[in-house]
Amino acid sequence: MRHAGKLILALLALTTALVWQMEDLGSGRQWLATLVLLAYALLLWRAKVRRQRQQPAVSGEADYLIAYATETGTARQLAQQMRKRLGKQGCTAALTELNRLADQSLPAKALLLVASTTGQGDAPRTGDRWPTNDDLKRYVDLPFAVLALGDRSYPQFCAFGLSVAGQLQQAGAKPLFAPVQVSQADPAMVNYWYQCLQKAADIPV
Ligand SMILES: Cc1cc2nc3c(=O)[nH]c(=O)nc-3n(C[C@H](O)[C@H](O)[C@H](O)COP(=O)(O)O)c2cc1C
């Protein structure tokens, strides 16, 4: 996204330069085109600021830290919904991709993981470098819960989510409840996972 923003700005600057090369346009039209391009850049900038406000920076003060591992976006979407849902219950939650978990401060209450599986039971793009460079010792005694996404038609159903749960437990982290395996992002099972969390973490309904 950061690269896309830079590319758009570079294209706008190039277009402005081209407009000023076209002398037969006349300076009135050249100014008009420049103003339109500037207004467009301003709109893009405002949209970016709004997006950043909707996704506050990850903070060590958060009650929950939600880490997602996704290939095609479902786990990220569900993680974002989870954060909103927790927010409505008065809880704070920070969001990160699993590959960046090592850079985040630990949450006050629990680590929540939304992890999809790809390939033949493999890690998806935003989780394929975890736990490299993460000191798993820091998760000792940390409560956690895993929402494992997959598809029942694959022989290695939810393999990556289960592997994440296993590695955390082996490192000494404390599962709030067993990983919930969800096929094709079934909303009923996602809801069931959330109910388990509410019960285990004593979140008001
Ligand atoms: C190429 C491919 C390979 C997949 N491999 C598995 C698998 O081995 N095990 C599994 O349970 N699900 C597998 N799935 C299903 C995905 O995990 C499931 O659709 C999930 O909801 C995708 O989540 P995402 O959008 O966060 O990546 C696979 C899906 C695709 C497209």
Automatic annotation (TrEMBL):
GO terms for cellular component: cytosol. GO terms for biological process: homocysteine metabolic process; methionine biosynthetic process. Pfam families: Flavodoxin_1. The chain crosses the membrane at residues 31-47. GO terms for molecular function: [methionine synthase] reductase (NADPH) activity; flavin adenine dinucleotide binding; FMN binding. It comes from the Bacteria. Residues 64-198 form the Flavodoxin-like domain. Keywords: Electron transport, Flavoprotein, FMN, Membrane, Transmembrane, Transmembrane helix, Transport. This is Flavodoxin. It comes from Marinobacterium iners DSM 11526.
